[in-house]
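dumping the sequnces here before i forget
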Amino acid sequence: MAKESKKNKKAADYPQIAKTPTGITGLDEITGGGIPTGRPTLICGEAGCGKTLVSLEFIVRGAIEFNEPGVFMAFEEKAEELAMNVGSLGFNLEQLQKDKKLKIDYVHIDRSEIEETGEYDLDGLFIRLGYAIDTIGAKRVVLDTIENLFAGLSNQGILRAELRRLFQWLKEKGVTAIITGERGEGPSLTRQGLEEYVSDCVILLDHRVINQISTRRLRIVKYRGSVHGTNEYPFLIDEDGISVLPVTSLRLEKEVSSERVSSGIPSLDKMLGGKGFFKGGSVLVSGTAGTGKTSIAACFANEICNQKQRCLYFAFEESPRQIIRNMHSISMDLQKHVDNGLLQFMASRPTLHGLEQHLVAMHKLIKRFKPQAVVLDPITNLITVGSVSEVKAMLIRLIDFLQEEQITVMFTALTLNTVVTEQTDEGVSSLVDAWILVRDIEFNGERNRGMYIMKSRGMKHSNQVREFIITDRGIDLVEVYLGPDGVLTGSAREAQKLQEQTGEVLRSHAISVKDREVLRKRKVLEAKIAGLQSEFESAEEELNKIYIEEELVKKVAEGNRQEMLKLRRGDQGGNDRKVKSNENKRI
Amino acid sequence: MKTKEYKYELRLYIAGKTAKSQLALANLNKYCEEYLEGEYKIEVIDLLIKPQLAEGDQIFAVPTLVRKVPEPIRKVIGDLSNEEKVLVGLNIRPANKK
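..and the predicted 3d for all of it:
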């Protein structure tokens, strides 16, 4: 993370507080590396908010993951009880104790057995703790819950002085300690004011029930000498222990990809600049009930899996089997992807837990499954467990997280017909990168689905309304007809299509008639031309004939004249030759 | 001597020879001589020498006086300066007698 690298840079320049990683998912990120090494940390909270578990996980993770043995001094529960309580989390305390990585020391205080007279001190506790630390070389210590001393002993003056000494002593020992304390009445963090003694790091756990849904939260109240997240972070206790999520990233410095991901509907891709969504982008599909939002989402999931990539499908309305069955009807086989491990369904009722916990659960699953795409179907149902602003905040964080991981996400949301503006209930439309709206177009006595792309950041997208058809072979988009009465869809579109086809036939027929007419005209004209030509030829011939006749006449006349001359002169020979040559020339 | 069963078996846990522990031991000896003559055994355990014993008797404060026998185990913590409280604590003199 960018935050950490920045911190490292700083650490190189100035000496900083050494930190001990707790090993608890997310807590180390909020605290920037863990709790202060060699100092006591106070964890306080109400009963049942997970104090003991947090501190025990700190010890166990330390022993297993960081090879730092730990001492757990329990004032409330016996070692066997503790072991049983965390057995469900996969922590084997007995084995760890045998391996000398963990020591659980149960301090039993029963007021009925104890009588106090005069001065005393808690050296016994010190010695016990010191002995436990020394036998296993512990680096981590937990005192859970030291306030029980106050219940067992009446001399508060001594106790307070001794506690102060104890924390000092722990610091001298150089062990990283967690002290748990019960949340007190009023503004104080703990019932006995332990925060006065432990002032380096205070973590507050909280367990709140809002609208009958409880959410555990964690907040770092103070952390001396270190930057830390100040928000309340929800945390989850499940089979892997505790996970805390630093879910609000404050920056908008995410990597972006210009890679494209197909939506699984070729004609929709065409509307989106021909290639589909951006990888790592967020897509919102909203529409009224029954417009095929789930089908679009399933189509997208199917496409991702066809590309041999993983997809995680969070279903808040239908069970996985139901979705698979329903998608069979549009010839989409999701079951094979589930079998191949490419598709994973995560179906849960929104009311199962609070919003934050949903987010935590999603985070965990996404981290584990590492999908390339995530589908949330539908987000509308989340509104039942939180207010609009809460849902929005949660979705912002989810989108943030997914963008960081370069995961494409598709949300579906239900819009209500009564809403005038095209606004989703969750108000997330401004957050997403692409928003596809599917709506009913009621016309001509039938209902059809129309699809628009309301927005698609960073790409050329179609502004056309397309009719969205779900057929046996899948989803397709067809162009709607814009007739004089408005947008035509469904059977009206088909009728219009037929009408246009008829027109086409008529027109082509008309054209062929015209063509023949032209041909005929041409033939007539050509015939006329031929007649004129022959006329011309005959005229020419006539003219030529006259001309030749004239010539002949002329020639004959000349011949006659010469003859006459010859006859008249009576001489022959020379002149005779001359006439011949003249004749030759003429011809 | 070890085989002998005493009516009262007492253990005093101390941490080093501090003023408090000395005072507690002196007080204890005084009360025992006074009320339990010949019926008691006192074992003094210095936790600085044997820290591993602290866990067994659930010691967290010193000095602590533990009555092992008779059952049930009872504890008195502090320097035992209040005679009344020690006797009640050890159930040597019944509380209602006060």
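Chain B touches chain A at residues 13, 15, 20, 23-24, 47-48, 51-52, 54-55, 58-64, 72-82, 85-86, 88-89 (CB under 8 Å).
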